[in-house]
Amino acid sequence: MKVLPADKTCINSGFLCNNCQARLDAGEISEFEIDLAKDLIKLEEENEEFAFLKDISFHKAIDFEDVVIIVVGKRDKLRITPKLMDLIKETYEIDEILLVQNTKKPRPVVEALINPYKIKSLNEIFLATGDVQFRAVLWEEDKDKLLFTKEELEELIFELTGNITRVEFQ
Questions:
Q1: Tens of pLDDT along 56-78?
Q2: In the 8-state DSSP scheme, what is residue 3?
Q3: Domains of the chain, residue spans
Q4: What is the DSSP string of 25-84?
Q5: What are the pLDDT digits (tens) for 27-61?
Q6: What's this model's pTM, rounded to 2 decimal places?
Q7: How far is CA 34 from each of CA 51, 53, 139, 157, rounded to the nearest angstrom?
Q8: Which end of the chain has the least Cβ crowding within 10 Å, N or C?
């Protein structure tokens, strides 16, 4: 794999260096991410069918109740096979996996989190303080169909992009 949440040596050995341990203690990475990375490396090395994993970037994984959000590199979403997704679901007893591209832009993240539903509009708001926030307007009729509540979406978008994004339904 091209990018991992922790050092490859630490992931393989199970013993974390000072840097990786500090990131784990600070909450920047999780035990789940380390376990998932270890399993993905093992699949890449031992199973020819998953050799494509050597070209994949795995940045982060967020375990959000029954849904896991996996942050991958640009264009890596297209390379990941349904068989790999099913294997991850089965191994970790996950109901749903969402793949999100690693980006600081809120639009692709919002689109991935509400898929298959669509964004009505996404606006950039310039505050008097000089800060920039975003306003994502989603369709009112999709509100009850989404996997996440308004507050959960706002929290996830912030965690994934670092941008404050207000979600509204109209």
A1: 999 999 988 789 999 999 889 88
A2: B
A3: 8-101, 106-169
A4: HTTSS-HHHHHHHHHHHHHHHH-GGGGGGGG-BEEEEEEETTEEEEEE-TTTTTTS-HHH
A5: 999 999 999 999 999 999 998 999 999 999 999 99
A6: 0.90
A7: 20, 16, 37, 22
A8: C
* Residue 144 CB-density burial (10 A; 0-12 exposed, 13-18 middle, 19+ buried): exposed
| Number of C-beta neighbours around residue 115 at 10 A | 13
Angstrom distance (rounded) from CA 164 to CA 31: 27
Are 71 and 160 spatial neighbours (Cβ–Cβ below 8 Å)? yes
As a whole number of angstroms, the distance between CA 144 and CA 57 comes to: 33
Supply 7's token pair.
Answer: 């050092």
Strands 96-101 and 67-72: parallel
Q: Which residues in 36-67 are b (16+ Cβ under 10 Å) and which e?
A: bbbebbebbeeeeebeebeebbbbbbbebeeb
Q: Residue 51 has which token pair?
A: 């050799």
Its CATH architecture, for the domain 106-169, is 2-Layer Sandwich (3.30)
Enumerate helices (H) and strands (E) in the chain, giving the number of each.
6, 6
